[in-house]
Amino acid sequence: MNFLSVLISGLGAGATYAIIAIGYTMVYGIAKMLNFAHGDIIMVGGYAMFVTLALVGHPVAAVAAAILAAVLVCVLMGVSVERFAYKPLRGASPLAVLITAIGVSYLLQSLAQIIFGSASKMLSGLQIAGHVMLGTLRINYVTLVTLAVTVVLMVALTLFIKYSKTGRAMVAVSEDRDAALLMGINTNAIIAITFAIGSALAAIAAYLMLAKGASLANTLGAMPGIKAFTAAVIGGIGSLPGAVLGGILLGVVESLSYSIPALAPFTDAVEFGILIVILLVKPAGLLGKARREKV
Amino acid sequence: MAETLLKVEDLHVYYGIIQALKGISFEVGRGEIVSLIGANGAGKTTTLHTVTGLIHPKQGSVVYKGEEITRIPAHRIVSMGMAHVPEGRRIFQGLSVYDNLLLGAYSRSDKDGIKRDMETVFEQFPRLAERRSQLAGTLSGGEQQMLAMGRALLASPELIVMDEPSMGLSPLLVGEVFEIIRSFREAGKTVLLVEQNAKKALSVSDRAYVLENGAITMSGNAADLAADDRVRKAYLGA
């Protein structure tokens, strides 16, 4: 197999991980919690698209409507989960919050199974088929779409955080929540906005996964969620560029490992092995800041 | 005393089962500089946190400009015209000096007013103007204190609450900080000050309260307190 095409498909997979990892890393940075239900928001987005596709007749309109519906439903779900499950635990021990997040994850998966059944579904209406040949190099259209969407989202998010008033407030809350309060920042609102952004990105990730041909089941977001969390930690949790770097790195490693027959069955082990190695060498992750001691 | 700006009555504050404040009452008049002095752990910072809404008392009330603010969350008190310069400065290290100042004005929407106040702050603190695009974490301790004070000014407050502004600074800078506090009054602001450096605090203040173990034990004109034997012994090292 062509090394370059392996690399490019790895970039595509990595870009999707990066989009999910941003949700983990932003929530960690601003709300100081690990939202283990983040992956399941992807699954919620998947079913939102499934329902919309069934309702809208026109094929092109259906895809647009499905993406829009997924974003809306995911944002609503993410913000509700924060409001009703995590907000009451503000100031509680991190362990209580962590266990609650795992509970929310199972709750969402079980609800999806009760409502939609356990048989997995193919959403062929969302799939992007076809490829372009550059000489001998074959690039799938879905990879190009994924990379383009990721770049646009990253640029937009970076500009938003750097130049908008809300973005500045997000940085302030992530650095020092009490000091942010003293600036007049409604920290609870900023945390809710963070969940909204992360959930919208999860909806986009759901679309990209289904466009690539993933089948929809209540566990759609489970493994990608864990991989993206790994990516966020590799890059340095709390760091936005770190989440992107970690996601891309993980995607490329995954793709390379799949392409080597001897390694292919152990791809997951290779990916998590890399996490262990990186944490041994750089405990704060590749772009993570070593924790400042507070006096 | 001038018209009352802040009136604190019978504050009782607990951390778990430990009582930090045991019925504290005091007042700050418009245009005054009022100090709370006392040893470590006497409850000075707790008092300030209760005034600005970071913590809420079990009993008692905080009235600001005639309005009860005891249970109002901290972020809404800022827009009522109260700014808090916290202990240890607590500037946002990963943001530029300019962004830190903009965050000080977060609760305001009057663009022209913010611009004007920004210019005033840059005039008063030329060092901040020189370093406006530098990351705040790269400033020296003294510059960070200036930034914390400039940031508070951008909230356009009537009352500035300051917690240990001279802590960890060289004697030269300590003098400068107290000059700035005086300048706040000249600009028509009111200041509630907490300081370990009781001598300096009393020298700039109109009135002061002495806190011991969560209760006020003495109060009066700053000059009278500075001349009082008990205060001199306990806090002025005389």
What is the helical fraction of chain B, as a range of percent?
25-40%
What is the count of distinct domains of chain B? 2
Structural class of chain A: mainly alpha
Structural class of chain B, please? Answer: alpha/beta
Number of helices of chain A: 11
| Number of distinct beta strands of chain A | 2
Could you say which overall geometry of chain B the principal axes of the C-alpha atoms support?
A: globular
The 3D shape of chain A can be described as: globular
Q: How many strand segments of chain B?
A: 10
Strand-residue proportion of chain A: under 5%
The residue fraction in helices of chain A comes out at over 70%
Distance between the termini of chain B: 29 Å
Structure description:
The complex is a heterodimer of chains A (295) and B (238). Chain A has 295 residues and is mainly alpha-helical. Chain A has a domain at 19-221. Chain A has helices at residues 3-31, 38-55, 59-86, 94-116, 141-163, 165-175, 177-182, 187-211, 222-235, 240-259, 267-281, and strands at residues 131-134, 137-140. The radius of gyration of chain A is 19 Å and the shape is globular. The relative contact order of chain A is 0.20. Chain B is α/β, with parallel strands linked by helices and 238 residues long. Chain B folds into two domains: 1-81 and 159-238, 3-Layer(aba) Sandwich (Rossmann fold), CATH 3.40.50.300; 85-156, no CATH class. In chain B, 37% of the residues lie in helices and 28% in strands. Chain B is built from ten helices and ten strands. In chain B, the strands form two sheets. Chain B has a six-stranded mixed β-sheet with strand order 6-7-8-3-9-10, sandwiched between helices. The two termini of chain B are 29 Å apart. The interface between A and B is medium-sized, with 19 and 27 residues.
